[in-house]
Amino acid sequence: MANSTAAAAPPTGPMPVLSARPPWRETFVSLRVTNYRRFAAGNLVANTAVWMQRIAMDWLVLQLSGSVAAVGVTVFMQFTPMLVFGLWGGVIADRYSKQRLLICTQTAAAALAALLAALTLTGAVQVWHVYAISFVLGLVTVVDNPARQVFVNELVGPRYLRNAISLNSSIFQLGGLIGPALGGILITAVGGGWSFVINSAACLAVVGALFSLRRDELHHSPAAPRGKGQLAEGMRYVRRKPVIFWTVVMVAVLAVFAFNMPVFLAAYANDVYDVGAQGYGMFNALVAAGALAGALASTRRTSVRLSMVVGTAAALGVVQALAGLAPGEIAFSVLLVGIGVGNLLFITAANSLVQMSSNVQIRGRVISFYILVLLGGQAIGGPLMGWVVEAAGPHVAMMISGLVPAAAAVLVAWMIARHASLRLRFGLRGRRPVIAIVNRAGKAGATL
């Protein structure tokens, strides 16, 4: 008989909604937790090095092959394991110690980076080597990502969870701000091989941080018992919760069309503005700078709702489409910052909503499905948008990458409103215009 974790687990607790914005001194409140502070410090070093490695890998493939589509294939190889095995990663994360899983995955990532460094520095590297290592890194990610996402709750507990999620995004993007710039300089100065050496050392630093955590201060999640049908159970759970389901739908659309910036930026750096590896790194750094601002802004939210996820997706799509129409490099660079802001506001809202809407005992499977859609969509979108770039040009491809998500957001909003029998009502409050969401009877509707 199938084990019903969802039924046995306690109901999802109410999501915290603040009546006022938290004071600025509370922006980094989760860093007061010693374990999270150690984990975050290791992550900052590792994320900077990972971004350096990503820039070096993309540029290495472009140099070896001369094809932007080949960069898309690299993305495909890294994310394909998530398409095939992603849901199993969630089952593993629900069953075993997240701390031990992360120690294993980071050790494996260090070994793979060291191998890629040896191949590159000796001049023996070929495109298929990068593809193969990208694929194995994808296998590591299958377990690492859901374990990392759920482990945040064990580090800080439910009280600081949303703040920690936003800070994790800030740390990721701070690494994305520093890493590409350093990576571009390093490629120009001494070659990309040393980026892989640095990333290998950084992964080992994360392992050290994980070993240093105080186990008695962790908020241990109950392990899910073994049982048949646990993958299907996670899928049913997602389908039964509209807030999670529609969030995942929007993530899927943006992952395929909008979240393939390495493909677009490589084309703009190489074919449109001819700015080389340093320019490519700088374009990535501009996106990351905007994303860092967006991640910090997300810590100021009083609540997270489905309407925020859909609205942010629409706004991001519009800005990304405008980038395709940018008349010059300066305008394009400014819009890249806007893309970064919209990207992170969307991702942090979606991630927070999915995590806080899920029961703890099934959260690993829900998060693994979320990551499956996020990374699997990029696996499909990488070569797809690479083909569009080569067939129609970077400008048209960038416009398509924004217009499709914007249209999808409008369609999803219409479907949600229709299902809930909601409509927009326009009116005046004194001299001030008011737009409200109401049900068909004219009463105020529940905010989504």
TrEMBL record:
This is MFS family permease. GO terms for molecular function: transmembrane transporter activity. It comes from Leifsonia shinshuensis. The keyword Transport applies. Keywords: Cell membrane, Membrane, Transmembrane, Transmembrane helix, Transport. It is a multi-pass membrane protein. It comes from the Bacteria. It is found in: Cell membrane. One of its GO terms (cellular component) is plasma membrane. Residues 35-420 form the Major facilitator superfamily (MFS) profile domain. It holds the Pfam family MFS_3. The chain crosses the membrane at residues 67-89, 101-121, 127-143, 164-187, 193-213, 243-268, 280-299, 306-326, 332-354, 366-389, 395-417.
